[in-house]
Amino acid sequence: MNLILHIGHGKTGSSALQSFLALNSDILKKYNIDYPPHASFQNAKKGFISSGNLPLVDNFWDEYINKKALSSTADSLLFSNESLIHKILSHPEKIEALNEKYKLILVMYVRNPLDHIFSSYGQQVKRHGQTLSMSEWIDDYQVLDKVSELINICEKKHIKIKLINYSSIDKIEESFFSNVFPAQYKDLFLEAKVPETKTINRSLSRVEYEIQREFNRHLGSKSAAFVSDYLVNNAPDVKSEKEYIEENVLQEFIAKNQDKIKFINKFLDEENQLSIEKPGDIKPHSDTFEISAKQISVLAEGISKHFNRTSNARLENNDADYLRDIALKIENKKTLTIEDAYYLMSLAHKARPEGPFIKSKLDHYSQQQKLS
Fold first, then answer.
1. Residue 262 has pLDDT above 80, yes or no
2. Which residues on adjacent β-strands are paired with residue 273?
3. Do the beta carbons of residue 176 and residue 107 sit within 8 Å?
4. Is the pLDDT of residue 312 over 80?
5. pLDDT tens digits for 136-182?
6. What is the DSSP string of 187-240?
7. pTM of the model
8. Rounded CA gap, 118 and 245, in Å?
9. What single-letter DSSP state applies at residue 168?
10. pLDDT exceeds 80 at position 196
């Protein structure tokens, strides 16, 4: 069996590819490609941010992948998770074992470093609580080192890796299939569906970066769910912008990474080489920001929903009474009733009002109470 692992790296269109794969998972099966379903499909099909279909749980290398392989009748088993690169670097012996068991192909997209540093910095602000400025953060950028290390592992252990320059492609969906499944590519795309959202997991604008950084200072990375994630998912057409970086810092970065780029380029086609040219759209330093009515509306909605949800989830005095009584019933080995089940599920609904399973159970318990 072919085992195809799309391993990222980050900020190279992974969410867009994962949306396409989730939306077309049934069609892929017709072409002997199994992209196993995952809980993230619900968001991925809408064009929202997702992490792919391979949960990086304990022992996923052995138990999860092998279990899916045993239950699959397809020629190719496909997984995508851009954090896989970090797992491989931490456990090279695991990827070696998979290479011995399957016809393994790693697929990794790389990106022109002076585009990627801005996008990577933005991701740190968006999702990971970053508060430093671009100039202060840039020394933390280790992607070229990690890519080089991965290439060396693959060379040493004879693992097939397909390296593609994200900066030189148009659409990642077509790039991925034309490179990895060239025989099925054209026919598959005649049937394939595309996400309604054209821009998936965009970078932020300057004012959005500033707002998220301030929330990071006061609330940390948990604020991303109702600030940047909400903006990215609900205002996908807002134009992304590159943050300001000091010129001397940028030039030092270029000089420091020339040799790493030359090494990686040895593994890319001549027409798809990485370049390290300075982007022309870097924003100048300014303390003045512009925000649109759309951004204000989306932010207000996201923040309001978050605080309504957290305030509604708080337990009240009568909740404590009922929980106490249920605990005493259990202690005294008394029979719990459907009313008890309904009340406990209603507390779960209070904490997670969007949960479809919880809602269905509440409806079921409600019907049972009417019949009893």
1. yes
2. none
3. yes
4. no
5. 999 999 999 999 999 999 999 999 999 999 999 999 999 999 999 99
6. HHHHH----S-SS-SPPPPHHHHHHHHHHHHHHGGGGGGTTHHHHHHH-TTSPP
7. 0.76
8. 9
9. G
10. no
pLDDT of residue 79: 98
Q: Give how far Cα 12 sits from Cα of 8, 82, 113, 300, Å.
A: 7, 9, 11, 30
Residue with tokens 């740190």: 124
CA 52, CA 370: separation in Å to the nearest integer? Answer: 42
Mean pLDDT within 237-253:
93
Q: How far is CA 304 from CA 235, 312, 313, in A?
A: 16, 12, 14
Average pLDDT over residues 120-135: 93
Distance from C-alpha of 294 to C-alpha of 188, rounded to nearest angstrom = 37
Q: Which of 76, 258, 324 is nearest to 185 (CA)?
A: 76
Q: Which residue has the tokens 């790039």?
A: 175
Enter the tokens of residue 282.
Answer: 């870097």
Contact 47, 19 (CB under 8 A): yes
Selection from 193, 276, 200 nearest residue 48 by Cα: 200
Helix runs in the chain, H state only: 14-23, 25-30, 41-45, 65-71, 84-90, 92-101, 113-127, 134-137, 143-157, 172-180, 182-191, 206-219, 228-234, 247-265, 293-312, 317-331, 338-351, 356-371
Task: Out of 166-170, 321-325, 358-362, give the one with best mean pLDDT.
Answer: 166-170
Which residues sit opposite 103 in a β-bridge?
2
Separation of CA 82 from chain center: 7
Name the average pLDDT for the chain. Answer: 91
